[in-house]
Fold this protein.
Amino acid sequence: MRLVLAVTSKSALLEINGLPSAIRAINGLRIFWPTLPLTIAVSPENSPAISSLLKEKKIAHELLICQPTEPADLLRVLLPESAGADAFVIHDASRPLTHPDTFVRLVSSLQNGADAVRPSTSFTETLKIVEPTGLIRQTLDRSSVRRISTPEIIRTSALDKDGEGTDWFLPLLKGSHIEHIEGSPDGLRIDSPAERDLLESFLHWRQLNN
């Protein structure tokens, strides 16, 4: 098995209580997988900042330059460097607070036969389709929509080496056994300083009430 931290946005560098999201995400992975090799998948434009950060924090890693949000490109760079790996654990660096229990349930799903597994959570908001003019065209049934999160764990035997489009980090063979476990609110993605500030407030409240 191999750990892959996908730097999908500059938001991976946002600090939460003084620690960048990417480092928090790595620390979370290391609680559950302390010895597995770590690969950082990052785009050319984000590579210098991430490389400098990892060097500063003295984190052992392998750096792969690619487009982490393009499944075929991520697979192209991962496979030559991962001979012998039976699965990939792929985590978004902008999801810094994923609860350790999520990792436990993901691994359990894999051990019970899943080829690919990831967390998802239900929507509680009202979802509407809005025209460019601002006209509300349709209210969606929220029970038919899920929030998809990471980490994703994908067996190498389920990878489609000639695949292109997919809504997973890596292209999957048709017929692969896919599962979704119930995710945790802690696994939300941080995309902006405003979201970071909200999360810091939540962490402060939780610390006061523990």
